[in-house]
Amino acid sequence: MAIIGAIIKKAIELGYAFTSKTEYHEVQQQLLHDLLVKARSTSFGKHHRFKEILYAENPAEAFAYHVPFFNYNKMQKDWWHRLYQGEENISWPGKPAYFALSSGTTGKESKRIPVSNEMLNYIRLAGIKQVGATANFDLPPSFFEKEILMLGSSTQLNERNGYLEGEISGISASNIPAWFKGFYRPGEEISKLKDWDERVLEIAKRARDWDIGAISGIPSWLELMMKKVITYHGAKNIHEIWPNLQVYTTGGVAFEPYQKSFNELLAHPITIIDTYFASEGFIAFQERPETRAMRLLVDNGIYFEFVPFRPQNMNEDGSIAEDAPVLNLTEVEENVEYVLLLSTVSGLWRYMIGDTIEFSDVDRAEIRITGRTKFFMNVVGSQLSVDKMNAAMIELEKLFNIKIPEFTLSTVRIDGEFHHVWHLACDDNSNDKALAWALDKHLKESNKNYAVARSKALKGVLVHTVPEACFHDWHAHGKQRGGQVKMERMMNEERFLEWESFVRNWLSEKEKLKTASPR
């Protein structure tokens, strides 16, 4: 009997039952007050009259009146560039402890998001809360004695202008609490390796030494890692190496497009728990097994605002119109898309993270990520969300009995007329024209705006299947340049041309290798 596991599970259940219910709106209003008090003497706080806001009859309304909307470029240009020059007390007291590298808009240069010590503490607390939520899942006591493999970026951070920087997964893993280190895999030594292939190889070598009960990370990364482990040990599936693997905590991208190929690496199904962990903070996690929706962490150092995602509220460049209405948690409705705004303990203020969400349950503050605010194909009014694209890929997988773990889309002018050009990662035999027809048909039936666009400005749909390895190498290409590490579901014209050139060169090199005569 797993006595220690039973004790841990009971402690988690008691702790979760004690802390799970909160008055969301009241907690958020108190959090806004605390943020304003803490930052009132910063350059940002003085400029935007935080002291006056604190004395207002309705601080939330005064905050919305005095502080404009910010995206990364505006925040960096107006305020954060001063941090790189060594200044302090800019948008948050003191200097940030770290900068989290996040994908740049075109992939040319990574965004650098400040991360304070307060935010790191809240990220750790969110991790504990998420463990607490496992009390709602039917997991045996023995699970709580197993090790957890967290596959993120390197914990060996870079020093730049006196700061440490890296991807948020690497920053958070480099700050795990001491009590957790006994459960954490692959451990400090392997996690510091910067070279991805070297790190995965070391994981494969040590894999049989570990009793892994849960894994965490971006789906595409974990797939690559598990395939390497399986191949290295000549196994049929990952459960031959880790028989007690029961939980996968996903995040970063929607899991549904990867589900079919992911499950093929398992001997039996495991519990999937969704998270919403971004460079800007730990935003939400799945709290219960009845739904894949995630509960907003309203007491985790982030004040939330919501802008209805409608054409009249958005500018052409994807930013929010100045006069757009802003709602709080008491005003939102279910099944309506909103642009998410964050104000945080790292000095982000009314910051547009770029995601759109909808509430599936307002009373529980449970949300789903539906897409991104920048719809490059909106030039033809198709209004395709990432959520709808993911659903379309799942439909194609069912219809053609294939796997499509990755895809990307752009709107391209061909002979002066607009076309949607899709690239699908697919190693199975497939007919691109048949895929295009079925994809177009599904989107017409499931999306009224798309159907209208197809009858007007959107003249055609093209599908190109590309080996999955090409997508993986594109990830590596982005990492080498310090840019994208995740595939963009939608590309603007500049990014699409770069991607198309990469694909042509990649296919050409593979063809040369295939046809080269041995000497």
Written overview of the protein:
38% of the residues lie in helices and 21% in strands. It is globular. With 519 residues, it is an alpha/beta fold. The longest helix is centred in the last third of the chain and has 23 residues, at 493-515.
Radius of gyration: 23 Å
Biggest sheet descriptor: 11 strands, mixed
Discrete helix count: 17
How much β-strand is present in the residues? 15-25%
Strand ordering within the main sheet: 6-3-7-8-9-10-11-15-14-13-12
Give the rounded overall mean pLDDT.
86
- What share of the residues lie within helices? 25-40%
Structure class: alpha/beta
User: What is the CA-CA span between the terminal residues?
Assistant: 62 Å
Judging from the principal axes of the Cα atoms, what is the shape? Answer: globular
The number of distinct β-strands equals 18
Low-confidence stretches: 104-108, 480-485
In short:
This protein is of the alpha/beta class and 519 residues long. Helices cover 38% and strands 21% of the residues.
How are the elements arranged and paired?
Layout: H1 3-19, H2 24-39, H3 43-47, H4 50-55, H5 59-66, H6 72-84, E1 98-102, E2 111-115, H7 117-133, E3 147-150, E4 158-160, E5 163-166, H8 168-173, E6 184-185, H9 188-191, H10 196-206, E7 212-216, H11 219-232, E8 247-250, H12 259-263, E9 271-278, E10 281-285, E11 294-296, E12 302-308, E13 337-344, E14 351-361, E15 366-372, H13 386-400, E16 407-414, E17 417-425, H14 432-446, H15 448-454, E18 458-466, H16 468-480, H17 493-515
Parallel strand pairs: 1-5, 3-6, 3-7, 7-8, 8-9, 17-18
Antiparallel strand pairs: 1-2, 4-5, 9-10, 10-11, 11-15, 12-13, 13-14, 14-15, 16-17
Helix pairs in contact: 1-7, 10-11, 13-14, 14-15
